[in-house]
Amino acid sequence: MGWTVLCVSKISPAQATRHMILERAGYKVVSIDDPREALRFFAETMVDAVVFGDSIHVDQRIELAATFRSLHRSVPIIALSKTSGSQFPSGMVDEQLESLGDPQLLLEALKRALARTGDGSLNRSPGPENTENPPV
Description:
Blueprint: E1 4-8, H1 13-24, E2 28-32, H2 35-44, E3 49-52, H3 58-71, E4 77-81, E5 95-98, H4 103-114
Helix pairs in contact: 2-3
């Protein structure tokens, strides 16, 4: 797969579990618990997606999302929250999920977000072309 995911969340058992699940799914994961350090890392390093944990206060996550968008608009952002429903202004994050939900939902959200480009259109998956069933 080769995708790099930046996880911004305070150190916790949930964060460690999320890190492990993403790595087992084939992602390279960078977990940072300090929002300022995460911003510095994001500005200096190419990442393919960002996951905000629910342990970062919502106001700080909104501020980070806005800053991340201004730096690299095409990098998808997935926000986890303790409650259902939207906590972010429209268009600020690509996906919002309940953090206590099924971990498979995060993997599916990442897959969807990484399949899109910054303008919302579909991005072709890296790798060899499917030659078994060429288009007719």
